[in-house]
Amino acid sequence: MKVLVVNCGSSSIKYQLVNMNDESVLAKGLVERIGLDGSVLTHQPEGKDKVIINADISDHSIGIKLVIEALTDAKHGVIASMKEIAAVGHRIVHGGEKFADSVLITPDVMKALEECIEMAPLHNPPNIMGVNACSKIMPGVPQVAVFDTAFHQTMPKEAFLYAIPYEAYEKYGVRRYGFHGTSHKFVSQQVAELMGKKLADLRIITCHLGNGSSIAAIKNGKCIDTSMGFTPLDGLVMGTRSGGIDPAILPFLMKKEKMTAEQIDNYLNKKSGVLGISGVSSDFRDIEEAANAGNERAALALDMFAYRVRKYVGSYVAAIGGVDVIVFTAGLGENSITMREKICNGLEYLGTRIDPVKNNIRGKAQEISADGSEVKIFVIPTNEELVIARDTKTICGNLA
């Protein structure tokens, strides 16, 4: 069974074709600048040279059509025809309270996705465009929605509700949803396997650290709490996002700077985080380079990020009654040796001990805690596409 995994952004399509017989990636790629000048498809077949295809890609349907053509091309394709694609799995950012697991996409599901647009106006519309594009290009091929929010639906009410009038939750669904759920789910399962333990017996804190970052507290295989909230803006300091702040700052700045609601939203989502503090970049690699060169604000941005991670880890130890293992994943968590060390060196009170030799890795699944560390520390590369492919196989494999 071959599954096409699709992740649509407003002007992009990431994709992988996965052979579910052995979970091997046959090809992957990226369509960029959809609807803009200079649109391009970068296609990488397994074991072959990368292919760059420049084309006028005015919408997602044309993008999906080009992806199918690349996958079936006589020279750089990996399948004989589109008929070999048994199902399509889509990353959907927001499923609200309607979906606690992945689902087969039906007209009713599409209606529910549209109802969630106002909670994820930047993400759900392109996700929906991707589903519609695949329906147009591949009619009759089953499609599955895999939600960023689903894994966090096990949070108890005391964790997910905000202390505002309850009517806001009843009328508008205002609550904490959490994101990166597919990643948190995958790495928690992987670390249990690597430790030779049952997921149901572990207390895990997973740290998905990158330009967008979140932490999850997982007990007995279920998410108890997570740092992102109603939107992905809450929680940790991030690349360009402020993370959690005093909400009274919003009307204060709007009044002082004469900002509209749209402007303050852009201010907090696009101009804040380590970019706003450092004044250098939203890329942690650039900030680290600047800090090493003596830039005090860059160093401060890194210190703020590490401090906030440690603070969340500590609070989540309280939430799940202790911790057995801490996992680092995503771009920064998997690749930044110095940031992992900076975070862990403030957690010794938990019984954590990081091994500097073991920690000297990038993008590799490995324990990095020192011998005798009471709390284990692991780096686990995330693989959200594989989770999507697995869920798609499970759901579509049950279709009569």
From TrEMBL:
<feature type="binding site">
    <location>
        <begin position="208"/>
        <end position="212"/>
    </location>
    <ligand>
        <name>ATP</name>
    </ligand>
</feature>
<dbReference type="InterPro" id="IPR004372">
    <property type="entry name" value="Ac/propionate_kinase"/>
</dbReference>
<dbReference type="InterPro" id="IPR000890">
    <property type="entry name" value="Aliphatic_acid_kin_short-chain"/>
</dbReference>
<comment type="function">
    <text>Catalyzes the formation of acetyl phosphate from acetate and ATP. Can also catalyze the reverse reaction.</text>
</comment>
<dbReference type="GO" id="GO:0006083">
    <property type="term" value="P:acetate metabolic process"/>
</dbReference>
<feature type="site" description="Transition state stabilizer">
    <location>
        <position position="180"/>
    </location>
</feature>
<feature type="binding site">
    <location>
        <position position="7"/>
    </location>
    <ligand>
        <name>Mg(2+)</name>
    </ligand>
</feature>
<keyword id="KW-0460">Magnesium</keyword>
<feature type="binding site">
    <location>
        <begin position="331"/>
        <end position="335"/>
    </location>
    <ligand>
        <name>ATP</name>
    </ligand>
</feature>
<keyword id="KW-0418">Kinase</keyword>
<protein>
    <recommendedName>
        <fullName>Acetate kinase</fullName>
        <ecNumber>2.7.2.1</ecNumber>
    </recommendedName>
</protein>
<keyword id="KW-0547">Nucleotide-binding</keyword>
<keyword id="KW-0479">Metal-binding</keyword>
<comment type="pathway">
    <text>Metabolic intermediate biosynthesis; acetyl-CoA biosynthesis; acetyl-CoA from acetate: step 1/2.</text>
</comment>
<feature type="active site" description="Proton donor/acceptor">
    <location>
        <position position="148"/>
    </location>
</feature>
<feature type="binding site">
    <location>
        <begin position="283"/>
        <end position="285"/>
    </location>
    <ligand>
        <name>ATP</name>
    </ligand>
</feature>
<dbReference type="Pfam" id="PF00871">
    <property type="entry name" value="Acetate_kinase"/>
</dbReference>
<dbReference type="GO" id="GO:0005737">
    <property type="term" value="C:cytoplasm"/>
</dbReference>
<dbReference type="GO" id="GO:0000287">
    <property type="term" value="F:magnesium ion binding"/>
</dbReference>
<feature type="binding site">
    <location>
        <position position="91"/>
    </location>
    <ligand>
        <name>substrate</name>
    </ligand>
</feature>
<comment type="subunit">
    <text>Homodimer.</text>
</comment>
<keyword id="KW-0808">Transferase</keyword>
<comment type="similarity">
    <text>Belongs to the acetokinase family.</text>
</comment>
<feature type="binding site">
    <location>
        <position position="384"/>
    </location>
    <ligand>
        <name>Mg(2+)</name>
    </ligand>
</feature>
<feature type="binding site">
    <location>
        <position position="14"/>
    </location>
    <ligand>
        <name>ATP</name>
    </ligand>
</feature>
<feature type="site" description="Transition state stabilizer">
    <location>
        <position position="241"/>
    </location>
</feature>
<keyword id="KW-0963">Cytoplasm</keyword>
<dbReference type="GO" id="GO:0008776">
    <property type="term" value="F:acetate kinase activity"/>
</dbReference>
<dbReference type="GO" id="GO:0006085">
    <property type="term" value="P:acetyl-CoA biosynthetic process"/>
</dbReference>
<dbReference type="InterPro" id="IPR023865">
    <property type="entry name" value="Aliphatic_acid_kinase_CS"/>
</dbReference>
<dbReference type="GO" id="GO:0005524">
    <property type="term" value="F:ATP binding"/>
</dbReference>
<keyword id="KW-0067">ATP-binding</keyword>
<dbReference type="InterPro" id="IPR043129">
    <property type="entry name" value="ATPase_NBD"/>
</dbReference>
